[in-house]
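Hi both,

Apologies for the delay on this - the queue was longer than expected. I finally got the adenosine-5'-triphosphate-bound model through. Below you'll find the protein sequence and the ligand SMILES exactly as submitted, and right after that the structure tokens for the full complex including the ligand.
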Amino acid sequence: MKQPLLDMRGIVKSFSGVRALNGVSIQLEKGEVLSVCGENGSGKSTLMKVLSGVWPFASYEGEIFFEGSQVKASSIRDTEVLGIVIIHQELALVKELSVLENIFLGNELGSFARLDDEAMYRRTSELLARVKLDVLPDTLVRDLGVGQQQLVEIAKALNKNVKLLILDEPTSSLTSTEIEILLNIVSELKAQGIACIYISHKLDEVLSLSDWVAVIRDGEHIATKAAADLTQNDIIGMMVGRQLDELFPREVHDIGEVILRVSHATAMQAGASRPQVDDVSFKLHQGEILGIAGLIGSGRTELMQCLYGCYDGQYSVNIELEGKEKAIRSQRTALQAGIAMVPEDRKRHGIVPIMSVGRNITLSVLDNYKALFGAIDEDKESQDIDDYIARLKVKTASADLAIKNLSGGNQQKAIIAKCLLTHPKILILDEPTRGIDVGAKYEIYKLMFALVKEGVSIIMVSSELPEVIGISDRVLVMHEGKLKGDFGYRGLTQEIIMNCAIKEGA
Ligand SMILES: Nc1ncnc2c1ncn2[C@@H]1O[C@H](COP(=O)(O)OP(=O)(O)OP(=O)(O)O)[C@@H](O)[C@H]1O
Ligand SMILES: [Mg+2]
């Protein structure tokens, strides 16, 4: 029998007695691409952490064979030597170092006494060309966008002797051009005989890229099938155990008077050549879902930061809420005024990683539970926590678990819960479904409709055009900091939005 490149057999992994993986087996040949699909918290990242040695041998049950030999890794270093390289869901570059330094970190060319700078510079330039990233090797990583950082991670992987590349949700924050570059790189690697395991909630990418699709649900391996024999709906069916006949559960709801009037929002970074937000004015009605579309860098997030009082630079804006002018200069004043926001970058603004899931959810409203002598009424607090964990279907072994232990998508759901608990009049959602599985997306949309029916008004920034069109009542389109379009959802198409999002001039 032909020997597979990778053979993972019966992997079982538990966290404090809770099984995250329950006997998962996957195989892969040289030069093949396998996608692993499954709902948030189904165990995809955990399986990859077992494979790459993040979880060392003997911390799980089951066996891993690579090129015919059993792998007993005690760290990620051990698997890298074998040619298994993982790029994690959360990027791990050192921001204060240059691209070159990151690529060679712990992997320097030359003797320890005298590193061969010239060779490293040349090698970095070659690698950057291979991933089509047009920056100099000495550029600092913190000056790069998320997508560019992702490409540096890949360049770094290529610098090692990679035989199996693992990409855990690599495209969730990339622009469409960057996604194309990335998918092309995977195809090129495949042609060179390098295998790849690909994890993504974007099922169109999964189908266009993979030879095989493995589906896991609640830690169980459901099936591995040839991608050519599958449709997106087949994958969804296996992932959630039922068919989803509609992706966007639009519900009829009343839209009231203007609740928020934003005038002349302008925001600029020190030393920048043009403002990130350039004199933007718009209105939001009560009970309305207002979508904000635009390319990455068009100023959508920055506009939201102006409304929420957290823009990191010079800005000015006039905000009128329910007919009264409001000065919002901090998250605190925003919350007091009834505006809550789920931020785009959850790692930086959303959560306190080592704090419990429950406390992360109640953090903004702790005052509500103040009992005598400043103590906290924990019963009341846990009632709310349980309530919102159930409402958003946050998958966690317990509310007391540190939130950093939750899967990526479930952390995102907890942040949404945190915002809802402030009972805002206006809810700002910046890329709310990034990294969220199709079933959970559906639940979040249902929740948004339930909220607007209660009279909450929602602003949703999203890069996923089907979502913007499928959920919003009205869509604003931004381009280079300016507002370029204002459309009702009826008759709105992706083409109309794209044309508006890339148009030049006034
Ligand atoms: N270090 C940990 N401690 C405790 N539980 C953990 C830990 N890491 C993962 N888990 C749990 O294991 C389960 C699987 O998580 P995992 O991160 O593998 O999901 P995932 O399929 O990658 O989801 P997502 O699509 O949201 O990224 C989840 O219930 C998660 O809370
Ligand atoms: Mg994951």
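Main takeaway for now: The domain at 248-338+424-506 is CATH 3.40.50.300 (Rossmann fold).

I'll put the files on the shared drive as well.

H.
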